[in-house]
Amino acid sequence: MDQKNWHQWSGKELLEKFGVTAEQGLTQDEAARRREQYGWNELSEGQRISPWLLFLNQFKDFMMLVLMGATLISGILGEYLDAVTIIAIILLNGILGFIQEFRAERSLRALKELSAPHANTLRDGTVRHIPARELVPGDIVVLESGDRIPADIRWLVTNSLDVEESALTGESHPVGKHAGVLKEAEVPLGDQKNIGFMGTMVTRGTGRGVVIRTGMDTEMGKIADLIQNTDTQETPLQRRLDQLGKILIYIALGLTVLVVLIGILHGQPAGAMFFAGVSLAVAAIPEGLPAIVTIALALGVQRMIKRKAIVRKLPSVETLGCASVICSDKTGTLTQNKMTVTRLWLEGRSLEVTGEGYEPVGQIMESQRPVDLKQDQSLRRLLQVSALCGNAAIYEADGDMRGRKKVKEEPEAKQWKLKGDPTEGALVVLAAKMGLSPGTLGASYRREQEFPFDSKRKMMSVVVTHQGGKMALVKGAPDMLLDKCSYILWEGKVVPFTGTLRSRVQAENEAMARSALRVLGLAYRDVKPHENLSGEESVESQLIFIGLAGMIDPPRREARDAISVCRRAGIKTVMITGDHRLTAEAIAADLGILPRGGASLSGRELAGMSDEELERKVDQIFVYSRVAPEHKLRIVKALQRKGHVVAMTGDGVNDAPAIKAADIGIAMGITGTDVSKEASSLILSDDNFSSIVAAIEEGRNIYENIRKFIRYLLASNVGEILTMFFAMLLGLPLPLLPIQILWVNLVTDGLPAMALGVDQPEKDLMEHKPRGANENIFARRLGWKILSRGLLIGLCTLGAFWLTLRIAPDNPDQLAMAQSVAFATLVVAQLIHVFDCRSSRSIFHRNILQNRFLVLAVLSSVLLLLGVMYIEALQPIFKTVPLGTREWAITLVAAGIPTFLMGAGSVWSGNRRRKFGGPRPMVAAKSTNIRA
After folding, report:
1. Residue 47 has pLDDT above 60, yes or no
2. Which PROSITE patterns match (predicted)?
3. Distances (CA, A) of 917 to 845, 906, 909, 912
């Protein structure tokens, strides 16, 4: 029974529609009948996939099937170590993929936990405590402070009712609810003040309402449906590796078949050529690539944990590196989610308040000078009202800090928290900054009466006694409070509230509201000894207006710097929030998100746009305000259709569908709901936007390291294939035997390639725009580097083989010597080339000793090579003979030519560009090592 306009219905119309009375509720029989019609009031998880089927699905990937074939071939050749290694790689990738998909399904179960387990409902004239899943449309439910709303309800009666809706709407503070009618047809969720939504929490007051939607028809149910029907995006790395694997396998198999056929045509034995071809195929297929990618990502994950980012899905680490847009929620992500008073106005003076959050540290400044509270009685009165007219309290979470003297030396140790309403908490903190708190004032002022905040009158009042008598303290919305004020504190005196003074107050209230501040007015009056205070009307009259307090949820200090770094690195930041447009635009401008000329869009405007129109305008929009969950999903998809790699951050239930749909979803670890965490790829353990920048830097480095070892592995494999291919074309004997090819593959593709996976980033890593989502993995001249180095390695290996054959053609061991030289040349050439792969330019541009893991890996490979050449027990197995000084000279010269020749060419071309002018890299951030 989904109706978009329930907010327009009166209470009488609702009760008639549902055939129920507010006094009796439904009968048990009618409730049972409606349950048959509408189903249970619970969220569906959709069709669940068997864990075994999930696991088996991991092995349907093309690369996995090829690796299984490579395992079979390795077993046939007797290379059992290779076979076992490849099986381990297959199982590791399968297990990781299974864990990721299994976790993704848990997001719906986490969403179900937000449903209330029980509800108080009116059945047959009696309030019954029943399981919430038994509720049906038309049920009358009764709610009070601390209750979770069990279904979508239309309020019939409210009493000072506030509801916390931040997880659903993004509102940073509880929303006052009422039972009145809203006339507008289209009203955003955050403005539907007469509707209560499933999963939200009553924080104050009581209410009674009629259930209008249950189960999957509720707003929470719509989110569950979005999560179910939103496909998780395949990461750019997964797409590239899948594409790369297919290309490499087809090329390797094609060239291997050619080598075998040409060898047979030149008179080589068919059996020997078959085994050589199979060995070459196994060597050419980079079966170690998935393992090295997994290891590089896993090590990156460990580094990111130290930088406050917890990775749930390994490939997402790399995806962050190519993010071109970050869509960020405002409340709690870019802001602190701690309402803070920043400006005061009284007696015609504007005062600035320093300090942020709930920590009572700061000052009240006038003309950049601290105010002396002893000399300012009007300000003292305002702070007294702030401290006493409310029920909030702040407390220090770390009690051990109370006894320490040098608190300033350990600012991180203090954690101040709020108990109560955030708006009242902001006023309590304001007073505490000047040494006035409910505790310190409690000895002098004792509360006698309280008239709670009401959404109709928009005020709260308390009556306190003190040595001089009684006093009424009032705070509320300025437009309502001013009507109750007859006097004003002006220059320390109580004077009549004239029209001129009233206009000045109203003008200041409007100015503060335009600055995105939430404004409260504060007033008081002395109560006569025998005055009858029977109700709020008697208290809230003839008031003395004191001043205005403007508050805001302040931006995180580090978010501004992080956004600046993102902008200079070519990454656009977009704010998506459920808050009001004016507030969103002011925060976005303050943070540097909204540039001059940048567009802002409200949820209502977005709802009126087609997907095509949104796609045309999405690149010019920087702020989205008053948005619904489905709007966030549309924004993410529109950006993706424009070719962007989208990162979506958030902490609420309303963020979960968009988090799941984004290329990388980022949830907040502290304030984030379980639903958003389960839908995400990355969790920020400190809820710090700047940690995203650190993660982006790490992601970029990981991708560059993946490119490095792809460059290394493929250039090495190309060199091996071309060595054999050219030898067959020239009618030469086999330069490499099958066992030697496999050994080269094991020695040079193992430790050195893994060491490249943990290489340090280059200095200009964050000085480039993000790579495109569809960028080929061979882009930026990588394909040329692979082919040119591979060709040179192949030619130099073949040259060393040919030269050794020609030195003493009549020596019966000369072929074995030549094959040993070719074998050593190929290994050494690749070990030299691995240092060249560390730089995007040449081997001369980086310190070769910087990566100590790589140095150790190369030394280990050299020792293994020497063992194969000089240990007599191994020589018959690998068909090697010891090399003399002359052969080593040939080997080292030939092995060094590919890297040093191309490196010298790179240095020369770079000098020419600098001398004659050329393209310069874009200017980026000087430092990207932003730590939490």
Report:
1. no
2. ATPASE_E1_E2
3. 20, 16, 11, 8
**69 vs 531: CA distance, rounded Å:** 94
Residue 92, φ and ψ in degrees, nearest 5: -60, -50
Of 900, 918, 920, whose CA–CA distance to 909 is shortest?
A: 918
For residues 369 and 363, what is the distance between their CA atoms, to the nearest angstrom? 9
d(CA 110, CA 677): 9
The three-state secondary structure class of 454 is coil
Catalytic residue among 329, 376, 553, 579: 329
Is residue 797 within 8 A of residue 723, CB to CB? The reply is: yes
Is 288 in contact with 248 (CB distance < 8 Å)?
no
Q: What is the pLDDT of residue 862?
A: 93
Amino acid identity of residue 674, one-letter, is D
687 an active-site residue? no
Torsion angle of C-alpha atoms 740, 744, 746, 752, degrees rounded to 10: 160
Task: Name the residue among 156, 158, 183, 46 with its Cα closest to residue 104.
Answer: 46
- Pair type for strands 325-329 and 518-527: unpaired
CA 881, CA 871: separation in Å to the nearest integer?
10
Give per-residue pLDDT as tens, 310-363.
777 666 776 777 889 999 888 777 888 788 999 999 999 999 999 888 889 999
Q: What is the pLDDT averaged over residues 855-882? A: 91
pLDDT digits (tens, 9 = 90+) for 574-588: 998 878 888 889 889
CA distance 369 to 351: 10
Query: Tokens 């105010």 belong to which residue?
Result: 371
Backbone angles phi, psi at 5, to 5 degrees: -115, 30
- Asked if residues 66 and 249 have their Cβ atoms less than 8 Å apart, the reply is yes
The pLDDT of residue 230 is: 57
Confidence of residue 173 (pLDDT cuts 50, 70, 90): low
CB-CB contact of 753 with 715 (8 Å): no
Which residues on adjacent β-strands are paired with residue 394? 418
* Under 8 Å between Cβ of 155 and 209: yes
Contact indicator for 32, 124 with CB cutoff of 8 Å: no
For residues 439 and 333, give the distance between their C-alpha atoms in angstroms, rounded to a whole number.
Answer: 32
CA gap 772, 768 in Å, rounded: 12
**For the chain, percent helix, then strand, then coil, each to nearest 5?**
50, 15, 30
CA distance 265 to 681: 55
Q: What is the mean pLDDT of the chain?
A: 81
Statement: residue 612 has pLDDT above 70? yes
CB atoms within 10 A of CB 387: 26
